[in-house]
Amino acid sequence: MTAARNRRRPLAAVAAVLALVLALAACTPEVNRTYDLINASRAQHGRAPYAVNLDLYFKAQGWADQLARQGYLSHSNLTQGAPPGWQALGENVGVGGSLESVHNALMSSSSHRANILSTTFNHMGVGVTRDGAGRYWVVHEFARL
């Protein structure tokens, strides 16, 4: 019994890593660009890059889709869809004509900038949806795990 259980553990770990790799590979270029903008800002301020969290990614993408459908900005229920074991949560939401304009607007807001440059949070997920008018709806989900 113990030998069979020990053989399953590495398989479960491999399956979890494979799921993460597949999910991140499915990220759009817009999501990847947004991660790059955030982590470049962090690097400019001497901060380590955020680790990507799959739960936060799915939450962020789902909320970005919702915002684009409803056509106005609002915050999600932070704890809904949060990863297990979270100690702190935060969220940024924005809309604009380009990913850079959304990022610059968030960096110009003290509370949103604080989330991006936080030393409290260590994981994040990003969601991006482009609506029929060409606007980008962007969501950043942050957590301390």
Describe this structure as you would to a colleague.
Helix content is 50%, strand content 19%. The protein contains 5 helices and 4 strands; from the N terminus they run H-H-E-H-E-H-H-E-E. The protein has a 4-stranded mixed sheet. The protein is an alpha+beta fold.
Strand/helix succession:
HHEHEHHEE
Shape: globular
Spatial ordering of strands, largest sheet = 1-3-4-2
Measure the end-to-end span.
Answer: 33 Å
**How many DSSP E strands?**
4
Radius of gyration: 17 Å
Helix content: 40-55%
State mean pLDDT (0 to 100 scale): 89
Task: Give the uncertain stretches in residue-range form.
Answer: none
Topology diagram in text:
Layout: H1 2-25, H2 29-44, E1 51-52, H3 54-70, E2 88-96, H4 99-107, H5 110-116, E3 123-130, E4 136-144
Parallel strand pairs: 1-3
Antiparallel strand pairs: 2-4, 3-4
Give the key terms.
145 residues; four-stranded mixed beta sheet; 19% strand; globular; alpha+beta; 4 strands
Brief rundown of the structure:
Helices cover about 50% and strands about 20% of the residues. By secondary structure, the protein is α+β, with helices and mostly antiparallel strands.
